[in-house]
Specification:
The chain is mainly alpha-helical. It has a domain of 126 residues. Helices cover 57% and strands 0% of the residues. Helix 3 runs parallel beside helix 6. The longest helix has 26 residues.
Length: 369
């Protein structure tokens, strides 16, 4: 049976762990853990370009190949198998957008442009939708507050918010086509619409109150180039389907696969944090405890939380460590700090257990309300 208990203490209840994270302002920083994290991983901060390129290109090749297989397959069963492979591979390829926000521009030469050309623009998730947004989530005084674009107190909200959260992601591909194929070109001639598009529809966020600001300088140029390319691609797709050049069946299969990647990512987002902070500034340790690691020995997290996302709590502790070095960082910290340490309290066993814990928390919040 799946469990969401911390790996270090199977006897600790999920509610106890949740209470620790919720009392965010009362959790002092564990300086021993923070110092150990910094000192033990100094040699792990360099990104390995070869790992990034091989991983991303292999994921892209497998994803688009399986997408073609799903479209061309004769039988439903075969198409479903190809579709599942395409979802997992393209989801992994898309997850590199997270790494782009943390990589220095010169760390992996050409990777930003390559990823946008192969993944960002074709899937209508150009990197500017995360660049300049995700870094706000890592600001200590912003995390978990109403100013955090990637945080909602989901565990304290109504039970219906969890399925709605996932449903919104399922409709994501349609929303992106509308955003880039219709709203973006229209906003060029309707200034008020342009402001709305920039503020509300230009970030991969979950906080509906967040309003984006157009960057300046090189970041602005980068945004505009990618937006033009994504809009051109979206309008082309609309035209190809409208004229029958692209068969409707092929388009719908592609749409379903991209929707699958977004649903999978949204489910992963549901368990990336405990989501129990209510607009309080949190210590570094409190932010760590409000986040989730799902380390080995489990194998499935490598599919639903790829590219280092299974070490999400550790990433909040060490945001500069590249994804391929997080497993080694985890091993070092676990060995050094031991099973009774604060570090172990953010380690959980499974996706199912974490989702169950979140759903139970929402019902508890209804009772409290």
């Amino acid at each position: 049976m799946a469990s969401s208990f911390p790996l270090s203490d199977p006897g600790r209840s999920a509610a106890q762990g949740a209470t620790l994270a919720r009392a965010s302002g009362q959790v002092p920083d564990d300086m021993a853990m923070i110092r150990a994290a910094a000192s033990l991983t100094r040699d792990l901060n360099a990104a390995k370009p070869g790992v990034y390129w091989v991983d991303m290109l292999a994921s892209v090749a497998l994803g688009y190949g399986a997408l073609a297989g799903a479209i061309l397959a004769d039988g439903v069963a075969v198409a479903l198998v190809f579709g599942l492979v395409a979802i997992l591979a393209l989801y992994r390829a898309g997850s590199f957008i997270h790494e782009l926000t943390h990589l220095r521009p010169d760390a992996v030469p050409g990777f930003n442009a390559g990823w946008n050309a192969l993944v960002g623009v074709p899937l209508l998730i150009p990197s500017f939708m995360y660049e300049g947004v995700h870094n706000l989530h890592h600001q200590r005084l912003r995390y978990g507050t109403v100013k955090d674009p990637e945080y909602l107190p989901l565990a304290l909200m109504k039970p219906w918010t969890v399925p709605l959260f996932v449903l919104v992601a399922a409709l994501g591909p349609i929303g992106l086509i509308v955003r880039y194929g219709i709203l973006s070109p229209l906003s060029l001639i309707v200034p008020p619409l342009r402001r709305i598009v920039v503020e509300r529809y230009s970030g991969l966020v979950i906080n509906p109150a967040f309003r984006r600001v157009m960057p300046e300088g090189e970041a602005r140029k980068h945004w505009l180039v990618l937006e033009v390319l994504a809009s051109a691609w979206a309008m082309t797709l609309i035209a190809l389907v409208a004229t029958g050049t692209l068969p409707l069946r092929a388009f719908l299969i592609g749409l379903a696969i991209v929707s699958g990647t977004m649903v999978l990512n949204q489910i992963r987002t549901l368990v990336a944090h405990l989501w129990e902070n209510e607009d309080e500034a949190m210590s570094v340790t409190a932010q760590y405890l409000d986040s989730v690691n799902v380390p080995p020995p489990g194998l499935l997290p490598e599919l639903w939380a790829p590219v280092g996302l299974r070490y999400h709590a550790l990433h909040h502790l060490l945001p500069g460590v590249p994804y391929h070095a997080l497993p080694e960082a985890h091993r070092r910290l676990s060995r050094e700090l031991g099973v009774e340490s604060t570090y172990q309290l953010a380690n959980y066993r499974s996706l199912a257990g974490l989702v169950t814990r979140l759903v139970k928390s929402t019902f508890g919040s209804r009772a409290r309300g």
